[in-house]
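Here is one chain, start to finish.
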Amino acid sequence: MKLYQINKGVNKPLEVKGVKAQYLIYLAIGAIVLLLLYVVGHIAGAPGFILLPTVGVLGGALFTGVSQASRKYGEHGLMKAMAYRRVPSAILSTSRKVFLRLTENVMCDDSSVSVSHGHNDRRGIAN
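Its structure:
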């Protein structure tokens, strides 16, 4: 029986055979889906000599894809990449009213900021 080292140290992500952190969860979910696919195919009457290689090839593709994503993106990189896709490339506005109201609201709501209207009042300047 082989023993695998699971923890690499303090404050390091969980890693098994090069697959890190949340990718282990993706791999486990994929394995469960493949198991259910095999069971459904077996109950439906699919021949075993077709079903087993199909599930084996899909399992290999799953492991390869997950390990490549783990290597490429790292522990939190996949979440960052997915979040980056949702960031708009540009914000278009035809009016300045939105931004003018935004600065007025921020200045009125924040009591630590004082607005000087040309007087020699230095209370609003931070040291």
